Amino acid sequence: MKDTYKTITKPSKEVLFKDRNSKFFGYAFPVKTEEEANAHLEDLRKKHHKARHWCYAWQLGKTDPQYRANDDGEPSNSAGMPIYGQIQSFDVTNVLIVVVRYFGGVKLGVGGLINAYKTAAQMALENSNIVKRTIDETFVVKFDYPEMNTVMRIIKENDLNVIDQKLELDCKIYLSVRKKEADAIFEKFDTTYKVEIKRLED
Q: For 135-200, which CATH class?
């Protein structure tokens, strides 16, 4: 079971690829939603308001990723898909790559465009901090105070990551557990007397 993924930690530095007077500015952004991706695109359209094309591709999701590629007026599949190809090549997700083109007066042809968009996307990713992360599941464990010692012992024995706790009239502890260990940990709490465990959606 795949329980790791790669992503970038912060926006890349602006990169520039030139071909026959056309300029291609490349950017990579970490994103978790399509709305975030659209906001970055909007910012770049304002920043580069004299550009001709703002082509992009994004991939979102850890286990079953969704993607979109957009040629923004360039010939079909000459911009968005070459950019998306680099997302696949670097095996990253939760990422948006945008390549902004200023037309230099000379047509590059489809082959030239594919090369330019691919290269600018590759440069943006090479200038990004790519990290490997685990795919985790989040649980909430509910119990009363008398069960506190039992619950804390399971947490300690399994070296579990506590992300939050609410100790009021009853107790709730929120845990982040690596995906491949999640079922076994769920079982441990589920079979513990007077302790309730529930999976939380991301």
A: alpha beta
